[in-house]
Amino acid sequence: MKKIFFLLIIFLPNVTFAASMSMIGEKGKVSEVSKVIEIKMYDNYYEPNIIEVKKGETIKFVVINLGELVHEFNIATKEMHIKHQPEMMMMVEKDILLGDRIDLKKMKEAAKTDHSMAHSHSNSVLLEPKKSADLIWKFSKNTKLEAACNIPGHYESGMVAKVNIN
Ligand SMILES: [Cu+2]
User: Fold this and answer.
1) What's the pLDDT band for 118 if we cut at 50, 70, 90?
2) The predicted structure's pLDDT at residue 96
3) Ligand 1 centroid to 50 CA: how many Å?
């Protein structure tokens, strides 16, 4: 009995993470992409700042950072963004996230002991200035979502886009 309880404690955080991930949709397949949306990131806002999608649709986001700072494009619920912000703060405190640069060597090193520092979630991209990346996402659920940048101060200053799922 004690053993079962112990196992539950170990697995529970993973279960809740998986549950909240499936709630927001899932990583999309290239073969199912029905629309391409270009997202431009500036200091500190997105263009466009309203994203219109249909339920069940797979979108390829082509994200380009045209600002002078590092930015993130992260699809999640408001609650998930708020939860994610301390992780980003820690990346700044550990000098992994510098204003206009990501120290990938330090990031790799930190990720060995704390996986959240790897920052390799399928629902987000983190980009240095002038860099771009694709993110393919399937909006399988009709959840209230936001695309946001959780680098300290950016969300608060308006780096958030509304996702309308119809
Ligand atoms: Cu940002």
Assistant:
1) confident
2) 95
3) 16
H-type helices in 31-163, by residue range?
78-93, 104-111
Enter the DSSP assignment of 28. P
For ligand 1, the distance from its centroid to the CA atom of residue 159, given in whole angstroms, is: 6
Structural contact between residues 61 and 39, judged by C-beta atoms closer than 8 angstroms = yes
Q: Hey, what domains does the chain have and what are their CATH numbers? A: 2-165 (2.60.40.420)
Question: Rounded to the nearest whole angstrom, what is the distance from the C-alpha of residue 161 to the centroid of ligand 1?
Answer: 12
Q: How far is the CA of 44 from the centre of ligand 1 (A)?
A: 5
Give the pLDDT confidence score for residue 55 in this predicted structure: 95
- The mean pLDDT value for 34-62 works out to 97
Q: pTM for the whole thing?
A: 0.85
Measure 29 CA to ligand 1 centroid, in angstroms.
26
Alpha helices in the chain (DSSP H): 2-23, 78-93, 104-111
